Protein: Crp/Fnr family transcriptional regulator
Amino acid sequence: MKENQAICNSCSNENCFIKKHIHLPNMQSYIEKKHSFSCKKSQQFIIEGAPIQGLYFVQKGKVKTVKTGINGREQIVRFTTNGDTVGFRGFGTSNRYLIGAYALEDTVLCNFNNEVMVDILKNVPEFTYDMMLFYAEELNKSENNIRKIAHMNVRERVIDTLLYIHRKFGQTNDLINLDLSRKEIADFAGTTEEQVTRVISSLKREALIKTVGKKIGLQQINKMKSEIMEHKYV
Structure:
């Protein structure tokens, strides 16, 4: 990773944990200890099982987090973008990362090492409280997702994945603002590349989506939502 200078005061990511608490009197001294790095597309910056080096915050770019599953296959567990937190799974409870993380495009990351993060959590109560709520919400999302996926067939899982990616990254010119291979979609949906290809072909024939190269655009979002509504789509 290449050292980069990302300034918190001028950052536009209002959802970033650091930016949301920058107004607190004792946060400035911690912000001065932050390190920023740039990653090239496809570069891995967190290795699953490696010693924890604090938390990362996406200043600009897109990231996927992965976890090794059955037979050593990587399962994508989360996509993140500007302002999101990466590497929080295991922080505070383990000395090693429980996930790996890759840049999906050229990305700028802000990092606070273990010592700085522990100091913030011990000395900035408002930050600590909001972090606790963040962990609770992430746990709730994970539990709901497990229950949902367990009752979905392959087509429903692919539709759910496409809706999630659309919700997360939006569309420009009727195409989702994220380039993902069919394998990456499969790794997130918990299925195979071949099954994803078949479902996408079916959705295209039904005019629910369109494709331009690897890019996918959702054309009938409400119909896609209604197809998985029984699984309590949110």
Observations:
- The radius of gyration is 19 Å.
- The chain is about 40% helix and 25% strand.
- The chain has a mean pLDDT of 90.
- The longest helix spans residues 125-150.
